[in-house]
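Here is a complete protein record:
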Amino acid sequence: MKLTFLFAAIACIAYGQRTVPDTLSLWTRPVSRAPKFDGRRMRRGAGGVAVPVVKPAGEFERARLRQAVAASDGVDTRMLRATQYDPEATSRWPAWWRRALAADLPELSPAPLTIAGDRAIAEVVVPRSDSEASNQEAELAALWQRGYRDTLVVWRGEPVPRVARLVRRVRALGWRVLFAHGPHELPSSTPYINAEKLRRVFDACLPYCEAVLVHWRKTSGPHWSSPSRYADVIAALARDANPRIAVIGEVYVKQPGYELVTAVPGCASAVLVVNASSAGARVNGVRELVRKATDAPLGVLIIGPRPYYRTLGAGRVDMTDAEIRDWCHNRENDFLAADWSFTITLAGDGYGERVFEGRRQSDALTKSQWRNVR
């Protein structure tokens, strides 16, 4: 009798749990009852909640998805190859993104830019061990002594509680936090992720942040055929989570040719200019070029003497770590002295994680060793 009562109580609790409907709205938070349990199509998730079982898409389903995506003007077909998705994404989230990218988005005004005049350092990421956590905090302490006060926390898809704890911890250390969703630049990664998870990350993290970047790494403009609509969706979700947060758009300078890839939401408080701080780039010349695309306040990404797409060790051939560090610091001074609003310096010279000349280089402060550079 007791066991029967226990099962009945669990069933009642499970039925009362909230789940996200397939027709997830961008601007409201709808609630639906959990579906009736069907053992053939569902499994019991956490708390006994009925969770759909989604099988990996077969070739027929992938072909149908490609056709559906190709018919949508707002979605970049290169980023929606079904073979790159997790099983849930192949069946559900592309449809959500197609609706979101075609939606009438709310009109939002720019929020105050509280990082004006600041130098930020990147990348703070979720540590995978105690040693990585200790290394990251040691790097932050050393960088604080060098005058940095802002840092960019990059979310790569880790569990929401872990990245939320990281943001609160960095904020508790006295840092002003910028935030970005930046998947690794790999063929298998995609920004078209579970939209409800993205919302939960924003809800948990952005109240502690000064600004959010709409593009970073795999979500950066050159990976898209039409990045502006994606930037609009990210900006709207971010401002829904924190109405006072500054949104930072992107202008990517493609080289050679100096073609501009622009994604600047209407509510952007500033724009990050990427691939325009390398050796030989004139500060005022870059400003004149970017002003053809936007009149928003400008920040610049600094990665070293080579442009971003050539940073696979190329910038280190004739320069020591100390020389690169000093070069970046001088470049920050150049832009700030010319009245640019802020700088973001990528600590590891720009190309993620790799081994160069027998040394492991990393943009993540969990692995970098800049405090030891003399």
